[in-house]
Design a protein that fits this description.
The protein folds into 3 domains: 6-93, Phosphorylase Kinase, domain 1; 98-162 and 177-292, Transferase(Phosphotransferase), domain 1 (Orthogonal Bundle), CATH 1.10.510; 323-473, no CATH class. Helices cover 29% and strands 17% of the residues. It is built from 12 helices and 16 strands. The chain has helices spanning 50-69, 100-107, 112-131, 183-186, 193-209, 219-228, 238-247, 258-270, 290-301, 303-306, 415-433, 450-454, and strands at 6-7, 11-19, 23-30, 35-42, 78-84, 87-93, 98-99, 134-135, 144-146, 152-154, 161-162, 352-355, 371-372, 394-400, 441-448, 467-473. The strands form 4 sheets. Strands 1-2-3-4-6-5 form a 6-stranded antiparallel sheet, with helices on one face. The chain has a 5-stranded mixed sheet with strand order 12-15-16-14-13. α3 packs antiparallel against α8 (258-270), α6 runs antiparallel to α9 (290-301) and α7 (238-247) packs antiparallel against α8 (258-270). The relative contact order is 0.08. Residues 11-266 form the Protein kinase domain. This is non-specific serine/threonine protein kinase. It holds the Pfam family Pkinase. Its EC number is 2.7.11.1.
Length: 485
């Protein structure tokens, strides 16, 4: 019989709870106090440099110090720090719960009232941290534990930053998860309470819609989505959508504050009349213009993202006055322009089709990188998604909002203009996806009809102003896994 391992003559290891690239979490028994704990072991891979190891160890110690400063029921308590045989361990409160990302993956999109209750608890933890001069910097679904009774724990303060403390990074890079980082952080601004609140807004959108709103096929595409593409909110109640949009305001000076968000979320959780989205009229610190934002992203993403501008045809406000005057030439010999096909005919590869009201695909309800069971067929709507880890016909592998820098009531730029954009954009995005596939893939670009474009502000059934890139197997056999990651 194998002898039970005991750390520091106190913590008996019982079972492994989870393992990542940099460590292991164990369920352990504190033999001194007779209670179950989570024991987090720093266990980086072989060959890691001494400097990088020191940074990782300091992050772990920072997690303990940070949690020790915070007294809130939604913050995981750290009990002890142990060093033994060259390894560092944290003894922490054991939370028997799934994280929010796993809950959404297993059970699907969350109810708005349920989400409001979870968000209120996370918000309380963040307010406590902010009042102590600490920003979390990595709020996301996988760092939010939700017990069956609804109690919430915000975890992983390992990269939390005191507002008067230098960044804990050995190379000067920005630390965090790109899909949950705010535009101000991506533009080089310091992490702040406002950036934590942005991440909470992204997390809420993920939970109620069932998919991360900004996650794309590559880091560059993800950064572009964060900066330029408002989240698609189709399942969120109007009141919760107002909270999410308020938290996802690009200018941090106009973003919802914690007290404002709490007021709105409390009304949702209690079933009270909705609280109107406040108008933050602050004028200070509004230098975060679109130009500065794009500059910041280009600096982070490099030439891959800078090339995005090459996807755009001639500006719709050009002196010609004709938004269809520009004709994209790249791959023009491979693409089929919009044209009518018999109802029920499969849409061929490298073809532009129109979607939405009156389009070739009259209804399209997928977002993010979702999958659907049926293939793209002329005249057939795509209403429901299917799990990407099971058999499916198509996958939405990328999307873009070409006129992100224009008001949403901008006139329809024309099918041909959008088609030129989609040809170039989808071709570039396909170059990222294709090497991952073992089978020959087909793909097409979907552009909105004029009616779909103009219904953007329709409260009952909002339209879309995106171009969409959709892939499938050329032999029309089912896909059996996601090609986007």
């Amino acid at each position: 019989m194998q002898q039970q391992q005991v750390i520091a003559n106190r913590y008996a290891l019982l079972v492994e709870l989870g393992r990542g690239a940099m460590g292991v979490v164990w369920r352990a028994q504190d033999q001194l106090l007779g209670r179950a704990v989570a024991l987090k072991e720093l266990h980086p891979p072989q060959g890691i440099g001494a400097e990088e190891f020191a940074v990782l160890e300091e992050r772990m110690l920072r997690e303990a110090r940070t949690a020790g400063r915070l007294n809130h029921p939604a913050v995981v308590t750290v009990y002890d720090i142990v060093r033994e045989n060259g390894r560092t361990y944290l003894a922490m409160e054991l939370v028997d719960a799934l994280d929010l990302a796993s809950i959404v993956q297993r059970l699907g999109p969350r109810d708005p009232v349920w989400m409001a209750n979870v968000a209120l608890q996370v918000l309380g933890a963040l307010e406590t941290a902010h009042q102590a001069g600490i920003v979390h910097r990595d709020v996301k679904p996988s760092n939010i534990m939700v017990r069956p009774d609804g109690a919430v724990k915000l975890t992983d303060f390992g990269i939390a930053q005191a507002m008067d403390d230098p960044r804990l990074t050995h190379n000067g890079g920005i630390v965090g998860s790109p899909a949950y980082m705010s535009p101000d952080r991506l533009s080089g601004w310091e992490a702040s309470p406002a950036s934590d609140l942005w991440a909470l807004g992204v997390t809420m959108a993920h939970a109620v819609e069932g998919i991360s709103p900004f996650e794309r096929t590559s880091t560059a595409a993800t950064l572009h989505a964060v900066m330029n593409e408002p989240p698609v909110l189709r399942r969120a109640s109007p009141a919760l959508a107002d909270v999410i949009r308020g938290l996802l305001t690009v200018d941090p000076a106009r973003r919802l504050t914690a007290p404002q968000a709490r007021h709105m979320l409390t009304a949702i959780a209690q079933g009270a009349p909705p609280v109107p989205l406040p108008r933050n009229g602050k004028k200070k610190n509004t230098a975060l213009t679109a130009t500065a934002v794009v500059l910041g992203v280009v600096m982070l993403a490099g030439a891959a993202f800078a090339g995005y501008q090459a996807f755009k045809p001639k500006d719709v406000t050009s002196s010609s006055g004709d938004p269809t005057a520009s004709q994209g030439q790249e791959n023009s010999d491979e693409w089929t322009d919009p044209a009518s096909l018999p109802v029920g005919a499969p849409l061929p590869s490298r073809r532009i089709a129109v979607f939405g009201r009156g389009g070739d695909v009259p209804e399209w309800n997928l977002s993010g990188t979702q999958c659907a069971k049926d293939f793209l067929m002329q005249g057939s709507p795509v209403r429901t998604s299917a799990p990407c880890d099971g058999p499916h016909g198509i996958q939405l592998f990328s999307a873009a909002t070409p006129l992100w820098d224009k008001p949403k009531d901008t006139a329809y730029p024309g099918t041909q203009w959008l088609a030129d954009f989609a040809k170039n954009y989808c071709t570039e995005q396909f170059k990222v996806v294709e090497p991952k596939a073992k089978d020959a893939l087909g793909f097409t670009g979907l552009v909105p009809t004029q009616k779909e474009w103009e219904a953007y502000n329709d409260a009952a059934a909002p339209g879309r102003q995106e171009v969409l890139c959709v892939l499938w197997k050329r032999d029309r056999s089912p896909l059996t896994g996601s090609l986007v990651g």
